[in-house]
Amino acid sequence: MHDNAIHYIMFVYDKSGERVCSVMHGSHSGEYMANITKVKLDYPREYLTSISGYKRANGDDDINNAIVQSLTFHTNKGRHGPFGKETGKYFWYPSTGTRSIGFYGRCRRLSTP
């Protein structure tokens, strides 16, 4: 889900012919459930080659404190996205020559002053 930031992300994939759903990571309630965007790859003919996006430019360059504003999924057939707001500091994570690209991160609810 996205508007001015990525609120949550979830993956559905095929594992030996069975559909597997990941848990939703992030805040996924209320108004955020109304704006879900689905990306479907034409697997096995289409696969991820890189991921890019923007993180909030908050003066802290530590990726552990990043708020992801936008995501774009790049494949061998094109791109899906951008999803979210393309502002802040740009990032790009290319694959290392394989089809698999993993995700690692954490989520937490932000408090406002």
Automatic annotation (TrEMBL):
| UniProt KW keywords | Lectin
Q: What Pfam families does this protein map onto?
A: Jacalin
What are the Jacalin-type lectin domain coordinates in residue numbering? 1-113
Tell me a Gene Ontology molecular-function term this record carries: carbohydrate binding
- Which Gene3D superfamilies does this UniProt record tie to the protein? Jacalin-like lectin domain
**Positions in coiled-coil regions:** none
Q: Which family does it belong to?
A: Belongs to the jacalin lectin family.
Protein name as it appears in the record: Jacalin-type lectin domain-containing protein
The lineage, from the top, is: Eukaryota, Viridiplantae, Streptophyta, Embryophyta, Tracheophyta
